[in-house]
Amino acid sequence: MPTLGEMATLIRSKNAGPFNLTFDIMFEEEENYQKVIASNVLTKEVFSSIYVIPVEEVLLVHHDAARAIKVSIPRPIFQCDLEDGDAYGGQQYGPLVSMEVPA
């Protein structure tokens, strides 16, 4: 099975202010974009499970014109808190890269 990292052109995470993270998953090919959506490998429930947050706090949008999936969640630790090991939120996409996408 291909991974999300193999199918997407870009997978990134970043801060959306000090209290939220946003994830962008972008695709060059329409076919890959549609396959990922149809597979249901990226859903609110999946993000809720991976990032241990309530499903109702996950905002997920499919942007067909850009062949992109955007997800926003609350940061588990506020930006620059003493326990924050990723002040820019740029390392939070890691678990998404190796996700397998069923046919």
Core attributes:
single chain; 103 residues; alpha+beta; 4-stranded antiparallel β-sheet; 4 strands; 25% helix; elongated
Give the neighbour order of strands across the main sheet: 1-2-4-3
Mean pLDDT: 96
Rg from alpha-carbon coordinates: 14 Å
Number of helices: 4
Q: Can you characterise this structure?
A:
This protein is 25% helix and 24% strand. With 103 residues, the protein is an alpha+beta fold. It is elongated and about 40 Å long.
What would a concise description of this structure say?
The protein is an alpha+beta fold and 103 residues long.
Give a topology summary.
Layout lengths: L3 H4 L2 E6 L4 E7 L3 H10 L4 H8 L7 E5 L4 E7 L19 H4 L6
Antiparallel strand pairs: 1-2, 2-4, 3-4
